[in-house]
Amino acid sequence: MLNTPKNIALSPDGSAVRIIDQTLLPGKLEYIELRDREAMYEAIRSLRVRGAPAIGIFAAYCVYVLARDYGESEFFSRLDVDCDYLISCRPTAVNLSRQVERMRALARSMAGERTQTIVGALGREAEAIHGEDAAMCRSIAEAGLSLLHEGDTVLTHCNAGPLATSEYGTGLGPLLLAAERGMDIKAYVDETRPLLQGARLTAWELMNAGVDCTLICDNMAALAMAQGRVQAVLAGCDRMAANGDAANKIGTSGAAVIAKHYGVPVYILLPSSTIDMACPTGAQIPIEERDGEEIRSLWYARPMAPEGVKCWDPAFDVTDHELIAAIVTEKGVIRPPYDVNLKKLFG
Ligand code: MRU
Which of 9, 33, 146, 168 is the most exposed place for a label (fewest CB within 10 A)? Predict the structure, then answer.
């Protein structure tokens, strides 16, 4: 059983959601408690809690915590305002809206019951969402590991580990499981500019788990592949369209294009809660744009670009399904044609 710190939980009295503040890692492992909706919004927006499954789980707990304060007559109007507000935090990961809508639908299906009863059910639903994610991640790790071999080295991008999900994670699951089983599978961890989820979070998680990992800059992937140092690319996903196009952290698509050139397979690992069958292709996936200060000055002791330079800071890109060798979900390994095979399993 994996020994990772619990990234999301309810506070013991249920009045707050408790998370690891991921912005402080790897320097400091600190837990914070969020009680009001503005603080919850800020936590998602500034990536204190991040990763598609994790923000869905977090938001589900938030709906429960907020609903505890609603009066009988205002229950559904306040629920709607808070659900819409939470969904508006970040647009790309489908898990956020999916889990909030699941909570809202449950409450609505109980209209007419006492608020205390509805709130109790919301609490159990948030726990169920969390438990389902942990189980899906375990299955994804197992299926993903079946694609790797003793002695392989993989390239990771962004962070798709326990911090971004629950327990094993998705993209990092096979590595963590391999380490647990004493297998020799190594990783090149790319930094993942501009927010450094690879350097700050993936390297931290892999080192803690005893996985042999080496940090590289994002622009070193081509050389690593040209020299035969990488046998597979493993990445998570924020929203997969019905044709297999995969939105993930900016730079995933670039790594996949390079991998195609060098004949390295790209595996996208995700729970079914990240698949959006209502979205036909990647072109319809909304891409979050963030503050250019992340590129210009964040992390530097002094700004590393001229003051006032224009910046464009999209947080995600879409990897074309043709660049993906296999999709790994809790239902196993899926091969092309993805439109047909995703529909069979999730349609
Ligand atoms: O902006 P972030 O850090 O939330 O982006 C996260 C990613 O892109 C992850 O790779 C994705 O959510 C999969 S996490 C299992």
Answer: 146
